[in-house]
Each structure stands twice: as C-alpha cells, then as structure tokens.
Design brief:
Number of domains: 2
CATH superfamily of the largest domain: inorganic pyrophosphatase (n-terminal core)
Distance between the termini: 27 Å
CATH topology of the largest domain: inorganic pyrophosphatase (n-terminal core)
Low-confidence stretches: none
Helix content: 25-40%
Mean pLDDT: 95
Number of strands: 12
Strand order of the largest sheet: 3-2-1-4-5-6
Number of helices: 12
Order of helices and strands: HEHEEHEHEEHHHHHEEHEEHEEH
C-alpha cells in the first residue's frame, strides 16, 4: 500500500474515532517511544482521547521525554490497561509488525484485527491489522509519524512532538550514521529543529547520562570482546553475574553492540546478554554493508529487524548460545 493510501485511511479513521490506544513494542527503545509519544500528543491536539500502553517498563535514559510519565505499564497496571483496551475504538501498534513483539498483550492484539492500525518500518509485516502503514525504507517509525502528521495537519506540530520525533530518529539511525539515513531524513530533522526540538539537549539526555555502574558494565563488555578466526566478526558477552555486579538496570546495555563495529575491518558485531528478567539470552546484531543480520536472526534466533540491525533470543545457557552462534555463522549462506 502506498504512503498516500495508508495515510488517507488513517486520517479517515481518526476523524471517526474518539478513544485511541497506542502500543509500542515490548522493551521499547527511543524510536518506539518517540513515535508513540509524538502520535499521542498529535491525537490529543486533534481532540481525540488517547493513551499509551507499553507492554513493560522502559530505560531510565528515556524517561525525560515529554509525556513519558503518563505511559501505562501493562505489567504493572494490567487491569487499568485492559480497561482502556476494551473501551478503545482504535488501536495503533507502533514500531513492530508482529503481535509477538508485544509480549503479554499479543493475544488481545491478535483478537482485535478490525481496530488495529500498524505504523512500522521493519520488513515482512504479519497480517494482523486492518490498516498497514509499513515502509521498511524509512529510517525509523518516527520519520513515518512525521510524514503522517505532515499529511494530516502539520500546523499541530509543536516542541513536544518535535522533541519526541527527533529522539526517535536520532536513536534509530545511530545519530544519523546508519545507511538508512537519507537526505529526506536530514530534511525532516531540520524541520523538527525549526519546530522546537533542541538537538544538543536531546543528545545530551540520551548519550551523556551514564551512571557509574553502566560505565563499569561497558568496561566489562569491552573486555569480553572476542574476534572469530573465520571472518570479520566480533562477539561480546555479558553474563548474569557480570550484570548483577554492576547493579544492572533496563537499558544499561543499549548501544554496547555498536562498539564492535568501531574496530577496523570488522563487518559484524554481536552481543549476547544473559537476560536477568526473562531467563533467556538476548542477542543484538549490527553489521556494515553486506551482512543481512535480519535474515540471520530470523533463521537461527527467533528474531528479525533490518538489514544492518536486528535482534534475537535463545533459551540455552550463555556458553551454548555462543557455540550455536559460531556454528550458525559458519553455515549461513547469503547473496
């Protein structure tokens, strides 16, 4: 579906509905939260009763964002969240294209096809919603939300919306260095700054607020880097004990995987994190030009994402997961 058709359908729906719920993916990142918060502000300014329900909590370094204090945590306030969901007549799912990315909320989403609208920039969307605004070529879902607002009523753009969208685009493009960043992305960023986004302050809030424990954890991760002998690949590991020693909090490992790509000649960086909260191994993949980490993650580790940035999970122990990863890398064939 073209942007025009998708945006027209969403615009028509908004004009008819009065109670909206916005759902980002589980473990929401800067783009999921930025696009959700911006859309929430826009809907409210359009006269619509709107609320954000996150499947679970999100990192402290994102809690400064405008409107973040009003987000309902499904895990912490399930009965309250369910009441909003049941009373809603329109539900936006933001920055994910598969119900399983919503954790405990997936059953409700799967049973609400007629009132679900998806806005997302990942590949291979599932068929679980009545309207899809799906464009993998966009840098971020936040850039898509900007285009949607521009299509419907750009006069409603303000500092809060611009701040949220700038944060989402900045974090999902690696501060505009990933290949998904286009001239159009930079144009959008310019417009957001014109609308009040303070780019220097946003960058400071995201990247310059590490705790001492988070810096120590980064040191451990860097010390655990190993280069594989059969390719330009880096693996980083963090065990449960190492996380606990640094009083790990959600979001503390955000961005650690990117350090592997800073090494000269490395094309693929992978981090394996012993997930304290969920009893599995969380895997993040980042690559340079040629390695399709989304296909690799989908084939071997129950995951997916983008060509150069993806995630996955494994339910083995950390060492077994690393062994499986090495075997999978040796056997993976791609064009």
């Amino acid at each position: 579906m073209t942007n025009y058709k998708s945006q027209s359908k969403i615009n028509a729906l908004i004009k008819k509905k009065s109670k909206c719920v916005i759902i980002p993916h589980k473990n929401p990142d800067g783009d999921a939260l930025g696009s959700s918060l911006a859309l929430n502000f826009f809907l409210k300014k359009s006269g619509i009763d709107s609320v954000i329900i996150s499947p679970n909590d999100f990192p402290d370094f994102l809690k400064w964002m405008p409107g973040a204090e009003d987000i309902i945590n499904y895990q912490m306030s399930e009965s309250k969240a369910k009441k909003y969901l049941e009373e809603s007549d329109l539900i936006f799912v933001i920055d994910f294209n598969d119900p399983k990315r919503s954790g405990e909320m997936s059953d409700f989403i799967n049973n609400s096809y007629d009132k679900i609208v998806m806005i997302d920039h990942h590949e291979n969307p599932k068929d679980f919603c009545s309207v899809k605004f799906s464009q993998p070529k966009y840098s971020s879902t936040s850039e898509m939300v900007y285009d949607l607002i521009q299509f419907i009523d750009l006069s409603l753009m303000d500092k809060k919306i611009s701040t949220c969208l700038y944060t989402g685009i900045m974090t999902d493009t690696g501060s505009f260095k990933f290949s998904s960043t286009t001239s159009k992305t930079h144009y959008t960023i310019g417009k957001l700054i014109e609308s009040g986004a303070n780019n220097s302050l946003i960058h400071q809030n995201i990247y310059d607020t590490f705790s001492i424990n988070r810096v120590k954890l980064l040191g451990i991760a860097l010390n655990n880097i190993s280069k594989l002998d059969f390719g330009p690949y880096i693996i980083i590991t963090l065990s449960k004990n190492e996380l606990q020693e640094c009083s790990y909090k959600k979001g503390d490992t955000e961005g650690f995987v990117n350090y592997g790509l800073a090494i000269d000649g490395i094309e693929l960086s992978i981090i394996l994190i012993d997930n304290i909260d969920e009893g599995n191994i969380k895997i993040s993949f980042r690559s340079k030009s040629y390695f399709p980490v989304n296909l690799f993650a989908e084939k071997y580790f129950n995951g997916g994402g983008h060509h150069n940035a993806a995630g996955g999970i494994c339910y083995d122990k950390l060492n077994k997961t690393k062994d499986k990863l090495i075997v999978s890398l040796k056997s993976f064939i791609y064009e």
